[in-house]
Every structure is written in structure tokens, then in C-alpha cells.
Amino acid sequence: MSKWKKLLGIMMLMFLLLVAAACSDSSSESGSDSSGDGGSSEGESTDSGSDEPYAFSIMANLHTPEVPADKVLEKIEEATNTDVEIQWVPDNNYEDRLNTAFATNSLPEAVFLKNQTTFVQFRDAIEDEQFWEIGPYLEEFENLSKLKENVLDNTMVNGKLYTLYQGRPLSRQGIIYRKDWADNLGLEAPTTTEEFMEMARAFTEDDPDGNGQDDTFGVTDRSDLVYGAFKTVASWFGTPNYWGEKDGQLQPEFMFDEYVQTMDFFREMHENGYINQDFPVTSKTDQQEFFKNGTAGLYVGSMGDVGSLKDDAIAINPDVEFDVHNYVEGPDGEFGIWAIPGYGNLVMFPKSSVETEEDLKKILGFFDKMMSPEVANYAYWGIEGEHYELVDGAAKVTDDSALFEREVKPFQALEIGEPETNGRYVGYFDYEPKAKSEELFIDNENYLIEDPTVPLYSETYSQDGARLQQIITDATYQYILGQIDKDGFDAAVEDWKSQGGDAIIEEFNSSN
Amino acid sequence: METSTMSAREEAKQLKKMKRSETWRRIKKNKMIYLMILPGLLYFLIYKYLPMYGLVISFQDYKPYKGIAGSEWVGLEHFERLFTSSEFWMIFKNTLMLFGLQVFIFFPIPIILSLMLNEVRHSFFKRSVQTLVYIPHFMSWVVIVSISYVMLTLDGGIVNAVLETLGLQPINFLLNDEWFRPMYIIQVIWREAGWGTIIFLAAITAVDPSLYEAARMDGANRFRQMWHITLPAIRSVIIVLLILKIGDVLELGFEHVYLLLNSSNRNVAEIFDTYVYVAGLQQGQFSYSTAVGFFKGIVGLIMVIFANWLAKRFNEEGIY
């Protein structure tokens, strides 16, 4: 008995220690946080003459499961003479953290925004001069002044520039499919939506893997109407990119017939079992798993994913063959593909943490150096010989892609501009479909469908747009699943209009 | 006349004064004991009452950069928006439905379970069952919902595979609003029933064994003993726990419901907690979501007062 008591005592003690350790850990973390904050004033006092590294912090999204090691960051700090603390926030709950930090006035000196939607949400605060206007300073910086004018125009608020952008190919959307399955069945890459449907059918019903079992289906999709398959397929049908012009007036995409056609297309695939039945609740991981493990044969999304998909799929089945494809005509005989406004992410500088113009210039100085080839390569490719090698003037990631993923990939979130402006190496890919996907990004640029509302402003949209969109998103899924019919969908659109949609249409059109 | 009332008032005053000084004297006398409750008192003041100051933003058009002092006052605008919104009744109804499931279906289960365990003779069996049923309590909702997802999905889930081999139609558990509530309450029972059992079992062990002896002498069988001795003995515990449960009326487990929520079941699964999260944290409507949360809190308070009043009517001790 006493032995048990002793054991219990020891366990309690360990538990206490654990708690204490956890507490001290978090306190030291918050301590360093605050020192990062205080860093700005510190830098100010020491900047007269000395070469003390300038300390500040950046909040950025983390696309990998783990926070990266400091190795690459140290290189960046050395090259820019700064002491940067990066607050990594998982991409999944970036909005929460961003809003919480903003509400509690604890944004760091440089804040990445995630995407266009969050940028629209912050519009109000930007107009209220809560962030530094950086337009007038850009000329002072050799590299920042190279940023593309047309993309900068897309990020202006009332004609003033508040953000630096991170360039991304305008459209990376397309199909990744099982080449070996298609060859087994004698199918070519689909060039029309009908052929796409036929491929989805054949992959489901004609036993493409030849194992005599009914264990495959066509398309794997996830709970995302934008970056999943839906929006890309909608583009093939000729649906506008969020907003389009009809009867001389801007209207949202879901008021167009093409949107309904796309829903019918998905409904047919769902009814016949050509798509995973639970796709409205499928995560990205599960979606990709179906593709990797040979359950599904068609993946619609960013064609660049083919590289990482292949790495994992090969481990399960070494005979897997993938290919990428972009050109799919709709019923009207035309191919179109939706485009992002030229930036993937934006970085802003809150006045609450960047107190003086001098500080702002130092931070802009950091991002200016981030746009020099040397530093941009550190952030994007890591250290030469360790993370990548040069092949024909292009960077080729070494065979240890896990190492790259761990130590370098997160820092790609800090890139400013694009290869054309920051001079970093472009990628060299010896995996042929991956190289092809890079070419198709460029090919896509001939068929872009742009979002006409990017330079426009609607107050209601900025405040209520996300909540209203939920009505449409829900109705779209319900329609595809056959839970509501066209009347039900129209009712949802009416609901959207009456709850503020009418005001959004009105405001966008009057600012056009 | 006047002088007499004056004196009566004076007297009452005097009496009050005496009483007050009496209280003071007692406090002084037991100051060590009062000192001991100080940490608890401070805890509630600092962490529970002080933050309530933030509720004022529900009457403002709160802008973080202007702060509470600088934001514009808008009166009851946000409450008006809530009550006139088409979603309000849906959310209110959903919240009450889940609450009803919690009280009427979930709440009796630990009681029944503990009564059953109490009747088990084999102590090894009893103890191992007791341990096994409360282990799920330590699993997070993420794990529980993921397990159910993997089991129930149409894309290779085991439940539908079994249904199919039995020649039945597969059931779309995840994307069907009719299955949300059963799924919710079954998961709650699976996770929490065993944990609740412990409390009732503890109450049962406190029952005087001589009562059972006497009952047996009078020829009561096991069921009679349970009905006439065990249950009345733990009645006050049941009532207190019920009141506390009702106080949690709107704490239906945000995490749990949020994980189960999707486009097809929103009409039955959207509750106040999930609504506040989406509106407040994801879409940055701070004032509006505070107003929603405030309203939820008030409903909870009313329910507790009501339940307590009800308990007193039945001559039971309430929680205050």
C-alpha cells in the first residue's frame, strides 16, 4: 500500500513539475514576445551610429505542420542585419488569430494578411489610417520600386498603397490525373467537360486499375468551393470569377446560368458516384489521400501539387503515373480559367506597433533586401548545396525533400514580389509533370477570367460579405447533394439579396 | 403621532446599527477564516467579474483601434439586428433542442448507470466497468468526431459497408440534418456518461447501510431498496447537478458542435456558440457577436434562477 502511495506521490510531483514547466515556458514565450515589441524602441535608441541588428517581429502563415528550424532565418537575419522574430500561425486558423490580435491591439510590426478576403475585411481599418501608407516611400528603395504596377493597383485603397504583395502565378488551376489508368482504358486527357465526365465515369465503372474489383471512383474533391474542384470546373463552363457583367450590370457569379450548369454537372457526378460521396465534409488531407492511394483518379486544383502528390503516391504504389492538364472546353466551345489578382498574400504595417517613420523605413528596408536575389533565394530555396542545387541556372531541391519541407518551405511565406522582380531562381524540376505544370501556369494566362470587383469597393460586402456567402455556399452544396432543387436554390439567392446582397450589387455597380 | 414614528424609525436604525456592528465583530473575530476565502474572492473578481466590463462593446460600434473609450455608442442596434435576423429563431430553437436532449436524454443515464453498478456484486467487475466507462471523458472532441467520421462516411466507412453487406441502403449520416441530433447525443453519452456516474456512485456509498438492512428485514427486494432508499438518498445530489446542468444550458460544447457542423445540417446544428465564433472571430464583427454572447448569458442566468426556484418549491435545497 505504502508503495502505491509513494508512486502516487512521485506522479503528483511530476505532474506539478510539468505544469510549472509549461507555465514558465509560456511566460518565457510571452516575454520574448514583448521584448520583440519593445525592440522597436530599442532599435531606435541604438541606431545612431552602431550596426546593431534592428529587431522586430512578423506575423506570417505557416503552411507546414511544424514551425521551421532557425537555420534559414539566421541566414536572412545576417544578410539583412536584423533580428526578426516570426510569429508563425497555422494557415487554418489565421483569420482567428489575425482578428484576435487586431482586437487586442497586439499586432506585430509586419503583418501578413493571408488573402483577398481578409484584405477586404481590413479595408475599414485601413481607411481609418490604422496602417502606414507606404506608397510614397517605395521609390527610395531599389528593389521595392520594381514591384509590378498593375498588381500594386489591385491592392490600393482609395488610390493609396498600404501593402507589399507576394506574387503568385495568376492561375495555377487545372487537372491532375492518373495517366496509367487513362492508358489502360485508352482515354486521352479530357478537352471538353463531356470528356471529363466520361473519364470520371470510366474511372468509376470500368475498373481502371484492372484488379477486377469495384473499388475506384473518378473525382476526389473537398469541402472547398473555391480551391477545390468547383470553381475551376465553373470556369470551364464560363462562369464569371465571383462577379460578372450581365445586362450591363455587375452581378454575382451564382446568378448566372453557367453557375447552375456547373451545379448540375456536380450533381450528376455525385448521383452516379463519380465523386466522393462525402466531399462537402472531406478535408484536404483526405481528399489527397484518395488520390495517392489509388482510390480516385482525377484531382482538380492547383496543378503544382503534382510533385508532392507523386512523392507520397510512389511510396504506396511505385507504378503510379500522373499527368497534368489545363485545357477543358465548356459546352460553348471555349476554355476559361479563373485568376487571382496577381498576389497571393499581402503584408501591412500597423501604426500601433510601428511608431515612427524611421522604424517604418527600417522595416521596409528589410523587405527591400528580401527582394534582392541573395535573400530571396534564402527564403525560397534555402542554402545552396544543402537544400538545393543549381541546374542550368535554376534551383533543384535536393533529394531530401522532407528536409526542405521542414527547414525552408515555411519561409516561402515571406517572399515579396515574384521571380521577375526579386530575381530568385526559378525551380528546376526533373519530374516531368511538375515541369509541365509550370508551363501550363503560363499557358493559363491566355484564358484568364478576371474578377471585375477587385478594384471596386462595397461597404456591405466588406462587413457582411463573408456571412452572406455562407448562404450561397450552403445552398450550392445542398443542390449538388439533391437536398434542394432549383426553386430552393433561387430562394437562397433571394435570401442573400434581401439580407444585404441587393446593397452589395448596388454598391459595386455605383463604384464601377 | 409624529414623535412615535420617529422613535420607531430611530429604533429600527439603532437595531440595524447594532446588527451591523455585530457582523463586524464576528468578522473580526474570525478574520483568519475570512482571510482564507480572499484568494477565491479575488479570483472571481479579477477573472470573472472584471472582464464583464467588456460587455459594454455590445452597445457600441466597437473598433479595436479606437478602444472601448473611443468607439461610437449605438444603443441596442446589435440586439435589434439579432432579434430581427432570420437566423435568430433557428439558432434559438436549435440551442434549446440540444439542451432538451442533454437534460431529458443524457442526464438520467449516469444515474441509471450508477444504480446498476451499485448492484453489481463482483467488486473486480464493478471497478473495471467503472474505469472503462469514464475513460472516454479524457478524449478530445476532435478525436471522437474524427472516429465517427471515419466510421460513418459513405466513402469506405465501416458502418455503411456493414449496411451494404446486409443488403440495406447506405445511410448518409454526415450530410443529413436528420442524423445530426442523434449523432450529437450519442457522442455526448459515449464521452460523458461514465464521468457523471462517478459522482452518483460517490453519493450512493454515503448511504447508511443500516437502512438497507432494515428494509431487508421488512422484506424489501433489491428493486424496492433501490426505489425507496438509494434514490431518495441521492435526490439532493441529483437536484443540484440538474440545476448546474441547466445553468450550462447554452454551453453545449462549442468544439463538439462546430466540428459536426456542415453545409447540409446548418439548419439544425447552428447554435449560439458556433454563431458567435464565426461572426466574431472569423468575420471580425466584435460588437455583434458580443451582443449575441450577452444574450446567451442572460438566458442561462434566467434558467438557473428558474430551476433553483423550482427546486425550492419541491422542498429541496437549491444551490443558493
Automatic annotation (TrEMBL), chain A:
Keywords: Cell membrane, Lipoprotein, Membrane, Palmitate, Signal. It comes from the Bacteria. SUPFAM superfamilies: Periplasmic binding protein-like II. CDD domains: PBP2_AlgQ_like_1. The keyword Translocase does not apply. Residues 1-22 form the signal peptide. Residues 42-52 have a biased composition (Low complexity). Residues 27-52 are annotated as: Disordered. This is Carbohydrate ABC transporter substrate-binding protein, CUT1 family. Pfam families: SBP_bac_1. The keyword Membrane applies. InterPro entries: Bact_solute-bd_prot1, SBP.
TrEMBL record, chain B:
It holds the Pfam family BPD_transp_1. One of its GO terms (biological process) is transmembrane transport. Keywords: Membrane, Transmembrane, Transmembrane helix, Transport. It comes from the Bacteria. The keyword Cell wall biogenesis/degradation does not apply. InterPro entries: MetI-like, MetI-like_sf. Belongs to the binding-protein-dependent transport system permease family. This is Carbohydrate ABC transporter membrane protein 1, CUT1 family. The lineage of its organism: Bacteria, Bacillati, Bacillota, Bacilli, Bacillales.
